[in-house]
Amino acid sequence: MMLGRYYEEFKIDRVTGESNLTQMYLQEGLEFIRRQTEAQRPFFLYWAADATHAPVYASKHFLGKSQRGRYGDAVMELDYSVGQILSWLRTLGIENNTFVFFTSDNGAALISAPHEGGSNGPFLCGKETTFEGGMREPAIAWWPGHIKEGTVNFQLANVMDLFTTSLALAGISPPGDRAIDGLDLTPVLLSPPHTIHNRPIFYYRGNELMAVRLGQYKAHYWTWSNSWEEFKSGINFCPGQEVSGVTTHDQKEHTMQPVIFHLGRDPGEKFPISVLTKEYHDVLSRISPVVEQHKKNLVPGIPQLNMCDLAVMNWAPAGCEKLGKCLKGPKSQPWKCDWPH
């Protein structure tokens, strides 16, 4: 079941930043959990608040309450809402039978900073880049009685793993008629200090493989922040963080000699390892076969969401008939815009 709201049915006051949308999402989520619990039905709730996405907003009770302006207010309300959901699970007595995972889909959008954007701490750049500030997100798993509280695991993982992990927790095997990229994280979550050794992470931008991480090392095969045209117009994906030869405004290829960082020593990707060192060649000798194998095993797919073809967008979401708000999709024009990697 999917619950959603149409943008014209709620208001974001662009002057004050006030909106009740997060509270509306919260109440919908709590009510859904109650209904499923009372009916003794298992449930999956994807609770995706967007208050920290420009335009940033918060409800009246939270506006002006943080020390980080409107963005901080939105984060404070998000934190409160997650707390309410966890508290509700306890109240209903189902916390020991409910797996909760908190994460995000990208790092903070620095192009909206400082007034409507967050901070990625020591990590380089932000959303829309494949530097750590754009790709590294918080990840917190919660399951009382199953996941030991206060533990930290340095296992590399990505959001695609949640699909396979959720199936494993439900006792369901993943479909065998397609390639599944996500790995089952249950051994990592439930049996610390278990890890999935040498698991690579591939960083894509569009359909271009930009970088690969293996352990603490990350190799950039392409570098790019945003175009000179955007940059000169005042749009900056890496404000205050320009790194020569790394945060390039031209799309620079490094496939013959990748730019390599050790993220343990250099989480900000500011000091590339010299190509003249033994460390560089040792790392490259380990990453190169991983990249070759990955490219060899890739299976081309048809995009289910194509920002360059508006006809692919969801013009008639579930329930639109009852509201009389189903829209007719435009004619397909898949090449009408350019989406560079």
Automatic annotation (TrEMBL):
UniProt GO MF annotations:
arylsulfatase activity
What is its cofactor?
A: Ca(2+)
Q: Which Pfam families match?
A: Sulfatase, Sulfatase_C
List, for all copies, the residue spans of the domain called Sulfatase N-terminal: 18-172
InterPro entries reported for this sequence: Alkaline_phosphatase_core_sf (IPR017850), Sulfatase (IPR050738), Sulfatase_N (IPR000917)
Organism superkingdom: Eukaryota
- What family, per the record? Belongs to the sulfatase family.
* Protein name (record): Sulfatase N-terminal domain-containing protein
Q: Which organism is it from?
A: Anabas testudineus (Climbing perch)
Q: Which gene encodes it?
A: GALNS
